[in-house]
Automatic annotation (TrEMBL):
Functional note: Responsible for synthesis of pseudouridine from uracil-55 in the psi GC loop of transfer RNAs.
Protein name: tRNA pseudouridine synthase B
Family according to the record: Belongs to the pseudouridine synthase TruB family. Type 1 subfamily.
Active site per database record: 40
A single MF term (Gene Ontology): tRNA pseudouridine(55) synthase activity
UniProt KW Isomerase keyword: yes
EC number(s) from the headed UniProt entry: 5.4.99.25
Reactions listed under catalytic activity: uridine(55) in tRNA = pseudouridine(55) in tRNA
Any Pfam family matching the protein: TruB_C_2
Residue intervals of the Pseudouridine synthase II N-terminal domain: 25-173
Organism: Nocardioides renjunii
């Protein structure tokens, strides 16, 4: 069995995130493997997995920003807002100009309210939305606040539009394709999606499953924590308190979770500010 840490996979098309988890479980020799946010079977790119104790980091990693490269096809709407769904409407795009496309996409940047795609994994009365849709139900989801930090139009060759997006967790790139098509009056859907980064983990450190089968590489849990969260190095007395899950008389710089380390570099826990003190979010020792 391998040491606890993160595995950064470059997912191939056609695989579900669960397929990747199952393969990594076999490679790692443990059932204790999870992922930090799914990728659709059609999508490729960065999928971050945790092994052993590092699975407890995943819930915090899921809250970090993500980056994608995407291709949008205007003029065709589908049931799933991507190429895997059935076509429900086709319209000509002859009246659409490149300037119109760029102007509408610019409106998505910033804090927006986005209606998730109906075939998302969001639960509706205890059941996944996609399961309800597949059962023939009409599902309408409420808009949710998301943040598009950056949206760069890399190419417009109508009816195709290529974009690079950096966004908050919970953003649906399929919904951007759908909403762009709606704004232009011609419909649209996503034809390709590649996730290029999850937080600080990008394609430069991602490896395919075939590569991992030849040389299984794990980002050690201490390195993963330092690369993801603001880091605090403690003295021996503070580290002893952390091992018992006690609050610390320590003012943390900034909001959110901070990774705290023993003097020798051992990753101990995630702590968050609580007034002038720090309190544990998750202890890993």
């Amino acid at each position: 069995m391998v040491d606890p840490g993160l595995v950064v996979v470059d997912k191939s098309p056609g695989m579900t995130s669960h397929d990747v988890v199952a393969r990594v479980r076999r490679l790692a020799g443990t059932r204790k493997v999870g992922h930090a946010g799914t990728l659709d079977p059609m999508a490729t790119g960065v999928l971050v997995l945790g092994v052993d104790r590092a699975t407890r980091l995943l819930g915090h990693l899921m809250l970090t920003e993500k980056a994608y490269d995407a291709t949008i096809r205007l003029g065709v709407s589908t049931t799933t807002d991507d190429a895997e769904g059935e076509v429900v409407e086709t319209r000509g795009t002859g009246g659409v100009r490149e300037d119109d496309v760029r102007a509408e996409l610019a409106r998505f940047v910033g804090d927006i309210e986005q209606v998730p795609t109906a075939v998302s994994a969001i639960k509706v009365d205890g059941q996944r939305a996609y399961a309800r849709v597949r059962a023939g139900e009409q599902v309408e989801l409420a808009a949710r606040p998301v943040t598009i930090h950056e949206l760069v139009v890399t190419d417009v060759t109508l009816p195709e539009v290529r974009v690079s997006v950096r966004c908050s967790s919970g953003t649906y790139i399929r919904a951007i394709a759908r909403d762009l098509g709606t704004a232009l009056g011609v419909g649209g859907h996503l034809t390709a999606l590649r996730r290029t980064a999850v937080g600080s983990f990008d394609l430069s450190v991602a490896r395919t499953l075939d590569e991992l089968a030849d040389d299984f590489a794990v980002v050690p849990i201490a390195d993963a924590a330092r690369g993801t969260f603001a880091s605090i190095d403690l003295d021996e007395e503070q580290a002893a308190h952390v091992r018992f899950g006690r609050p610390l008389d320590l003012a943390l710089p900034g909001d959110g979770a901070h990774a705290v380390f023993a003097p020798g570099g051992e990753f101990l826990a995630l702590y968050e500010p609580h007034g002038a003190r720090a309190r544990p979010v998750a202890v890993f020792v």
